[in-house]
Amino acid sequence: MSFPSILLIAFIAIVSIQIFYYFAFLLNFGLKKPNTPSHESPPLSVIICAKNEAENLRVNLPLILNQEYPNFEVVLVNDSSSDETLEVMEAFDKSHKKIKLVDVKSNETFWGNKKYALTLAIKASKNDYLIFTDADCQPNSNQWLKHISSHFSNEKSIVLGYGAYAKKHLSFLNKLIRYETVMTALQYFSYANVGLPYMGVGRNMAYRKDLFFNNNGYSTHINLRSGDDDLFINEVAHKSNTAICFTTPSFTISEPKTKFSDWILQKRRHISTSKHYKLKHKLLLGLFFFSQLLFWVLAPLALLFSPYWPWILVTVILRFAIQLTSFALASKKLGEMNLVFLSPLLELFLISTQLSIFIVNLISKPKHWK
């Protein structure tokens, strides 16, 4: 068999894998309508773990305290901060009955480990339903708690929400961050939608306290500096106990990184946990990533050197049409439609960045959550 024939077969195989993923997972979610929320309002404990977040707490905490929800507390965790985080928390604590304060001192064994601080907060919480977010997150509405909690039921003990990033004009890095965030959400929503939940984001997710303790919390990965959100969900989530919430009032909004180096460090921490996922999730996610990578490698080679280039061109157009449709449907749900036409370029940059991070993480590991 000639090299052009092999190249054609390989390229069509890669695109076929891509199309399978788009139809089986991504388009499936893109066409899904939000579930009708229930009217029950169980008592909630909102948990916010903060390390050197004094300014963010001053701005964002009032938006959480002013949620229109009948019964909730806010558990604030000061994780050995060196700024005025503790003082800000204490000031809010004096003026709001809803607040419970947990001050975590430096601990040689668990220094720099967010999971230790979160475990103390979960133990201190008084309610069985726990909502997690970060100090740099703002609820997208005063109905945030209502929308997230409405997906709890006798069967559903985990709710996965969406944590968006604020838009910054004329910033390619901002567009790249938002594109990566949408793609990550598109994947974990899509997988959960077909009964294969594998992760959530700590900026916006919820689960029951008894789920945490019945599964021994973070014990299996307590020494890893990341993974309080995705690794825990990867361990305990399954088809029957996981719900997704993607209504606009349920979003949280965070300030994105403004330096490429800071974002790379953040992504290094996140990517370092993926090797600890269940095998089936690693295989599915890895195959999708490498099919994307090989598409961008093989497409120009096939178009330039294959005598079958008209067939290659038709395949490329088909792949992009399906990719853009999938991304557009998800982007509309998640409020990011202005990224649609840039998505092929952003995809190329993101795949290149992720590949670089994989290689760097093989050499050295990120050590602290912050």
TrEMBL record:
Q: Name one Pfam family in it.
A: Glycos_transf_2
**Does Glycosyltransferase show up as a keyword for this record?**
yes
Statement: the UniProt record of this protein carries the keyword Transferase = yes
Keyword set, alphabetical order? Glycosyltransferase, Membrane, Transferase, Transmembrane, Transmembrane helix
The UniProt transmembrane annotation reads 6-29, 283-305, 311-330, 339-363
| InterPro entries cross-referenced by the UniProt entry | Glyco_trans_2-like (IPR001173), Nucleotide-diphossugar_trans (IPR029044)
Q: In the record, what terms sit under GO molecular function?
A: glycosyltransferase activity
- Origin superkingdom: Bacteria
Q: Give residue ranges for domain Glycosyltransferase 2-like.
A: 45-179
Which family, according to the similarity comment?
Belongs to the glycosyltransferase 2 family.
Cited PANTHER family: POLY-BETA-1,6-N-ACETYL-D-GLUCOSAMINE SYNTHASE
Q: What is this protein called?
A: Glycosyl transferase family 2
Q: Which organism is it from?
A: Winogradskyella aurantia
Q: What is the lineage of its organism?
A: Bacteria, Pseudomonadati, Bacteroidota, Flavobacteriia, Flavobacteriales
